[in-house]
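In this supplementary section we document a worked example of the pipeline. Step one takes a protein sequence of length 191 as its only input; no multiple sequence alignment statistics are reported here. Step two produces a three-dimensional model, which step three serialises into structure tokens for compact storage. The input and output of this example are shown verbatim.
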Amino acid sequence: VITKAPLLTDVDLNVVEEGVKAVAGKEPNTYFAGTSEDVDPKHSFTVTDVDNNDKQTVSITVTDRDGNPVSLPVTDDGKGNYTVTTPEGTFTLEAGKPNVGDSGSSQTYTYSYVIDNDAADNLDEGEKRKYIFTVTIEDSKGASDSQTIGLTVTGTNDKPVLTITPTSGDKGELTEDVTTTSSGKWAVTDP
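The serialised model returned by step three reads:
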């Protein structure tokens, strides 16, 4: 039974990608660091089992906010730590040391999310990507309980990148007070 779960509101974990934003009285391309990770030891839940000898297994499923399944890779390191890689970053679930006593056993799991800012560049400013991670803990006799963890990833404005690449032999000359035309190629990308 999950006995100490976080109080979940609409969303439990929140991250915002880095980017640029307009700040009153400043350059419109003012750097914004965002919140690249939501790592807090308070992001946890505890599983207790009155049977001392039960072993716990963990499974994680992911859905979008509408409840549609999202197929994402889940990795188990064999030590009770799990990662789920989303297109924008990594969700991590870590098992604490089990506590075994006369009245059963308990184990606390902490969770966090770290954004990959380059991967999140495809989100528009203010666009939100929402996921729900359902962590199911099952004991060795088949009894189980689940905890849902919400995540929102928010996009920001990304500064455009101008790239000018000269090709072989490109050169130009300009003469003052004379009408001159110069040409070439350049590309602009907006991540």
